[in-house]
Amino acid sequence: MTLLRERGTRRPDVVVPRGRGSIRGPEARAGWLFVAPAAVLLALFVLLPVLMALWVSLTSWNGQGSPFTGRAPFVGVDNYTKLFTEDGLARQDFFTSVRNNLYYVVLVVPLQTVLALCLALVANQRLLKGRTFFRAAFYFPSVTSSVAISVVFLFLFANSGTVNAILGLFGIDGPLWFSDSRGLVHLVLDGVGLVNLDAPPAALADHGVFGLSWWDWISGPSVAMCTIITLVVWTTSGTFMLMFLAALQDVPVALEEASLIDGANRWQRFRAVTLPHLRPVLFLVLTLGLISTWQVFDQIYVMSQGDPAKTTLTPAYLSYRTAFRSFDYGSGAAISFVLFSIIVVLTAVQRWLLRERRG
Amino acid sequence: MRRLTSTFLGYAILVFFGLVFLYPFFIQIASAFKTQADAAAHPLSLVPHPFDTSSFLRIFDSTDFPRWVGNSVLVTVLVTAGRVFFDSLAGYALARLRFPGRGGVFATVLAVMAVPGVVLFIPKFLVLNQLGIYDSYAGLILPLIADAAGIFIMKQFFESVPPDVEEAARVDGAGVFRTYWSVVLPMARPALITLTILAFQGSWNEFPHTVVAVQSPELFTLPRGLADLVSGSLGKGTQYPLKLGAALLATIPVAVLFVIFQRYFVRGANEGATKG
């Protein structure tokens, strides 16, 4: 990879000097001809639509007729203020979805990164036979259809499904995964006797911010959301494992051997030699994870549709539902632009933080 | 002795995770051949008892499965062909040809790659609606051919090959397109295979676009049909063997491709990473 990239920096026009004058015209024409189809498709189906949606997010278009003929009522930034400042269902739903997605991100990103790193370290052991087979096995879920995998997990976590059967072997009575809206943090607090689920402390339940009480904010992911978290960690770890593996293969063997001679144990070697080498990939994996976890949609659509009790609602699914099920395209578009900003800001913040540390 | 224990531990971990990652697929295959009662009563068992193929008959009888497969094949073939052709053309031009506006086009490609797909649901619907191709094959296929990441991969690749051979061809008087077609493309085989695989897998599995581009059941692809089959609108109770069987059939083409072209999948995954 690095080899390719280094060679890639060599610009062809620097390498071979040649009579430019004569080919310039046809070359320019050919250049445009070559990029035209792809450029038109990108402009038509990505750039133009984004601008159109920006306009629609300022209207209350309901799907009838065209939103660009002046028939759709212009409402200014109303669709945005409804999400942030006006007390109402729109704001409550939006911040519920943000809360759900936050818990989802906080669990999925670290779990999938750690799992991917562990898988890569094990699959990179030169002494073990059959590594290639296991590598393929770990990666396989990543290439299959998200919808098909969701169907499988619907069965695994069904009331009389595989997971509950395994729990049953240990004498545990598994929950009704997809209809259980209780939050994990709530359950833990209730379990240690700090609070009572049926009568939450008034200090938390009676006050709050953005239309949700503090009690709702601290709920943690619901039991139902945990099934989706499990599914996503399981499917994406394989891809990230491959990235770690590619980087691990670049760790100079000489360096590892030197540390062995120095008497470093396994953990010291990992900390001092391997981990510094993996740092760039680690940042990449975290960034990609952060971007993709805010986009979770397919699994929600197939497995839970935002239920139970809106605890698997995410901004992406909410934007879809608002536009295509409630026919409020303006609000739906506004939600997707807020989501867009969340992703952009988080990526920027993360890049900035990591640059500081690297410098 | 220490080495022996650590080798044993290594295998134990590998086998454990191997089971974690493959057991769900084994369960899926086994359950597709079970009866409804057997699947519910023995969700852990890998042996159908009795062995029952009726759920596959019902997949073809009582659902639109054949139609979904047909649509998926059509979409996948056209999208893959379109992406491979247009991406390699554009990637080559951006890497090698000098034309005014090249920098601008490449900046656009990078910008498009940074747009998260999930915020494009409503925008895509708006443009399809405006162009009058909502709920049609054109609307289902054309937007999927637009593929900034593929252009980026091809540009990277062409920049990594030394330009000497093309230069020689040009000196011999071959035009730009001739050179591209008979000299450059044959050299680009590995990159083209990677791109083909990425495009095939991507379009065969594509789901969200089908949700915003079509609504008529005659235009459903396999993932869309499957999603509606399980999420209720076409749902008929908890027929797990049927649903798992349909999901299994949807997985097979990519699985076969994966077994044959594994190293290209790996390369694709790492190419995709560079865009971050």
Q: What's the end-to-end separation of chain A, in Å? A: 24 Å
**Count of domain modules of chain B:** 2
Strand order of the largest sheet of chain A: 1-2
- What's the order of the H and E elements of chain A? HHHHHHHHHHEEHHHHHHH
CATH domain class name of the largest domain in chain A: Mainly Alpha
Tally of separate helices of chain B: 15
Helix-residue proportion of chain A: 55-70%
CATH architecture of the largest domain in chain A: Orthogonal Bundle
Give a verbal description of the structure:
The complex is a heterodimer of chains A (359) and B (276). By secondary structure, chain A is an all-alpha fold. Chain A has 17 helices and two strands. Chain A has a two-stranded antiparallel ribbon with strand order 1-2. Chain B folds into two domains: 51 residues, no CATH class; 212 residues, Orthogonal Bundle (MetI-like fold). In chain B, α1 crosses α14 and α4 crosses α13. The two termini of chain B are 44 Å apart. The mean pLDDT of chain B is 88.
Helices and strands in order:
The complex is a heterodimer of chains A (359) and B (276).
Chain A: H1 2-8, H2 12-15, H3 20-56, H4 78-84, H5 89-123, H6 131-143, H7 146-156, H8 162-169, H9 184-191, H10 202-205, E1 208-209, E2 212-213, H11 214-217, H12 223-248, H13 253-261, H14 266-293, H15 298-303, H16 315-324, H17 329-358
Antiparallel strand pairs in A: 1-2
Helix pairs in contact in A: 4-17, 5-12, 5-14, 6-12, 12-14, 14-17, 16-17
Chain B: H1 2-32, H2 36-41, H3 54-62, H4 65-96, H5 102-114, H6 121-131, H7 137-145, H8 148-160, H9 164-171, H10 176-187, H11 189-205, H12 208-213, H13 222-230, H14 240-260, H15 262-274
Helix pairs in contact in B: 1-14, 3-14, 4-7, 4-8, 4-11, 4-13, 5-8, 8-11, 9-10, 11-15, 13-14
Structure keywords:
heterodimer; A: 359 residues; MetI-like fold; 2 domains; two-stranded antiparallel sheet; B: 276 residues; mainly alpha; 76% helix; globular
